[in-house]
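FIELD: query
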Amino acid sequence: MDNQDLKIMVVEDEPLLLEAIGKKLEREGITTILCSDGKQAIDQLIQSNDLPDAVWLDYYLKDMDGLSFMSEIKQNSKLQSIPVIVVSNSASTQKVNTMLALGAKKYLLKAQYKLDDVISIIRQLIAQVNTNNSG
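FIELD: result
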C-alpha cells in the first residue's frame, strides 16, 4: 500500500493544529478527513462507505474525551477495526493503559514527537495492521 492509498481521519479541536496536521499529511500524499470534534468524527465514520486507514485522535476534545470516543467506536462493529492513534498533550499511566485496553493502537505525547515522527509511526502501524489482516 503506497501513500496515495492512505486515508487518515484527524480529530483535533484546536483549529490551527488541525489545519497544520491536515496540510502536512496532504503534502505527504495522504488523504485526510479533518474533524474538529468527536461527534462530527463518529457521525462521519458511521455514515461513510469508505473508512479511513487510521484515526489520529486528540485525547481532549471540546465535546468528549478519548475514552468516550473509543467507547463509541467499540460499540459499532463497522468501526471496531480502524486503528486509533491517540496524540495528546497529557498522559497518565492509567489513561494510556485504559485507552490501549479500549483498542487504541498507540498513545503518543505531542511534546515528545515531531509531526514527521507521528506520520511515520502511523504509516508503520497501518502497514502492520494491513499485513496482519491479509495473512
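FIELD: remark
The radius of gyration is 14 Å.
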